[in-house]
Amino acid sequence: MSTSHHAPPQITPLRETWRQLMTSARSRAPRLRASLIGLAVAAVVQGLALACLMPLFQALIPAADWQAALPWLLAMTALMLAGTAMRWWAQGFDYRGDMVHNTHELRTELGEQLRRIPLEVLQDKRAGGVNATLLGNVDETLSYVLTIANMMATALITPVAVALAALWFDWRMGLILLLVFPLLVPLYRWRRPAFGRGMRMLADANERTSSDILEYAQGLPVLRAACCAGKRAERLQASFRHLETIQTIGQKKGAKPNLVLATVMELAVLLVVFAGALFVVQGTLDVAILAALMVIAVRFGEPLATFVLYAKVIDLIEAALGKINAMLRIAPLPQQVPAQVPQTFEVAFEGVRFGYARAGETTLRGLDVRLPTCSLTALVGPSGSGKTTVTRLLMRHADPQAGRITIGGVDVRAIAPEQLNVLISVVFQDVYLFDDTILANIRMARPEAADEEVEAAARAAHCHEFITRLPEGYQTRVGDIGGRLSGGERQRISIARAMLKNAPIVILDEPTAALDTESEVAVQAAIDALVRDRTVIVIAHRLSTIAAADQILVIDDGRLVEQGRHGDLLAREGRYASMWRAQQSAKNWHVLEPRPAFRVMPPDLVFSGGGGSGSAKALLSGEKG
Ligand code: ADP
């Protein structure tokens, strides 16, 4: 059998698969190992039991001799029972709950890993992919292992044991059997790289489809509103078709070698019959041995012929193990020791350079800036300039390649992750509410908070009133009222969360950008309460909302191009001033369009520039006047 060397066999050696399997068996590894060895032993014992057929037939053919037959009958029975008992014990891994426990353990571990891996890395993974690994791969790996191992042992080990025993009765027949059965191995090795690749492609296709389904389902409201649900459905269809193609290829690749192997096995049985018949005619082989061997050969033909199918499952398991181990291998961000706790809350970026691993180019090109305690800093700049990246680095979704970020003089890399989390609250433009009660949704910011504290936070965030109007007040489940919460109400719930968390540093990622004017007023009031006496960073698109910030940082292409207060920046007639004018005229155009006579009026520039701590007034001034 020639091995095709064209395609590099990018398959994991079986030894590695074994190692990965034992790694994912976690605390149950010794049990799993014992069970697998148990199955192998059971297969040997079963082979020996079948080999008893040879002396048994000798005792019965041609003249039945009960005295001679009885011991072999008993031996056979004893071996069969021993083999079965052994198999039962080994399979106990499945039915005694070890397997389920193991699956649970592995899933928990992967869940914890999800919390540890840098968010930047996680962001690159699609939710569906993570879902496929945690749910599909984990089950694929462990549920099938013992079943498949049992089948493989019956297909491979038992025939070899029989063949070895046959050597004792007739060395020629034993040799023929020993030569025929191991034919499987080169045959299998020949096809395995293709199987492995096929299974990996299948795993990837499953992952992609899972992601597409998830995103489609989640985005459906938006898609419907935008009347492009159909277009997106086409994409989903494309992903289904891709899966179908991969499955078809897999079936073809699996079916053909399967047929080849089945044919080879048929021929092997014929070979045994022919050789045996020849020896019997020559008078050198007992016809009873031949009869026994025929029974045995027929008994093995089937499991051997379906061997390729089991082998495919091994590759499925292997592909799953690969995904799981890849996830477990992602290293968390390094932690500097000893861990330090900042005592003050000014934030500083010192010579920060950063590029996303995937993008391959620098996103931030040397950022030096200080955010004094209890000041409000606004980040403005064109989309893609790096504003979000600045906030992500502060939250330590990733570490900069050069420079450092400090809170109260302490490098964020020296702050324990839980501690850093306590220090920073974030209010995003998109609010994620979990399917739980409103109370729980707010409380998640500080799980130990009392009901009164949650309510106080809700009052401060201007949501107490609308919450009490809900059918079950704070106990209303978000899932039950689903779409009944307006964007502004959801936003205020998320602000209540941040209120409750009471972190000294607050990041606002354009929380009002998507709201209508009316909601915006309420949300702004909530934000004003939130940002009081804290170190705040706001990412803003609409400059009018940040005109009273303590400092405005104009970012362009990863660089700080201007820095100062609204008034100063306008006077400088630079980047900010032109952005400001562009937005003002766009606004006036929009509002005044029906009355062209007014278009020449200068934009309303009445802003309270010297906004002190820059909190309340800062965010309220502007468009809603
Ligand atoms: P802004 O918030 O100013 O719109 P971002 O900080 O989101 O800008 O993005 C800055 C640049 O980094 C963009 O070119 C963007 O494409 C890139 N970028 C953002 N997130 C990632 C990511 N997870 N992986 C790779 N590149 C990213």
TrEMBL record:
Annotated InterPro entries: AAA+_ATPase, ABC1_TM_dom, ABC1_TM_sf, ABC_transporter-like_ATP-bd, ABC_transporter-like_CS, P-loop_NTPase, Type_1_exporter
- Indicate how the chain sits in the lipid bilayer: Multi-pass membrane protein
Per the record, the domain of life is Bacteria
One MF term in the entry's GO annotations: ABC-type transporter activity
Q: Which key words are in the record?
A: ATP-binding, Cell membrane, Lipid transport, Membrane, Nucleotide-binding, Transmembrane, Transmembrane helix, Transport
One GO CC annotation, please? plasma membrane
Q: Where are the transmembrane segments?
A: 36-57, 69-90, 144-167, 173-190, 259-281
Q: Which SMART domains match?
A: AAA
Record's keyword annotation contains Cytoplasm: no
Indicate where this protein resides in the cell.
Cell membrane
- Domain ABC transporter as annotated: residue spans: 347-582
Chain ranges of the ABC transmembrane type-1 domain = 34-308
Q: Which PANTHER family match?
A: ATP-BINDING CASSETTE SUB-FAMILY B, ATP-BINDING CASSETTE SUB-FAMILY B MEMBER 6
Protein known as: ABC transporter ATP-binding protein
